[in-house]
Write the structure tokens for this entry.
Amino acid sequence: PEAPVPVMKKSMASPATVAYTIQEKYQNGVTLFRQEQYWKSNGVELNRNTLANWIIRSSLWLKPLWELMKDELFKEDIVHADESELRVLKRDGKPTNSVSRMWVFCSGAYSQKQMALYQYHPTRSSAVVREVIGDYSGYLQTDGYSAYNAAERATHIGCWAHARRKFVDCLPKGIEDKDSKSAAALDIIERLFSIEQGLKGMPEEKIREARTEKSVPLLNKYWELLQMISAPGGSKLYQAVNYSLNHKTELEGYLADGRIEMTNNRAE
């Protein structure tokens, strides 16, 4: 019989050993340094650089799976997206102190196919959005980062956790000023979140009805309050107010479908 196709040519690594290394690192959180020590304690000299090369070189075998998952993900009605800073060594000629990004795209809370896809990129460019999201025309929930506007066919949904955080940042630490404008805005946001807590587990149509009855009047009060706030340009209060006003359509987007969440915390 023919020998099985090796994971990597001219390598002693078996498919099982490579799979074990990947599972330990990404599922169980065992660093390559600790794996190196484990092998050493069992009489096997395996340098962590070797283990890293196994992961990098064998990842090509997983690309078809990633592409299949991508196709399935963007058939979903709701997709969440976010990107986080990441520092890497000796990649694309970038200096070691430069910042890259790890992007994540995941399904919504009500999806029957729960999945998350990660995409490394040296930049935070909108080109990544065009490359991964493409012509997706469902609901795309993100923070307020403008690069996501490159997904022109998607219906953009905002994140109330970001809106809330900006008003929290306005409050002096350790001081509760219940009469402040920030506190008034926060109170309305907290009441909106409280409504959502009470809707968990309800049918999608019932959630929409409850939001129309309970959340819409609060939202109207929220926008009226923000219109009355006058804050010095560049101040934290100014930034908080303008974040919400500039993303009003996206922040109200969750009203359109009971399956849409108020926040992008699934991706965050």
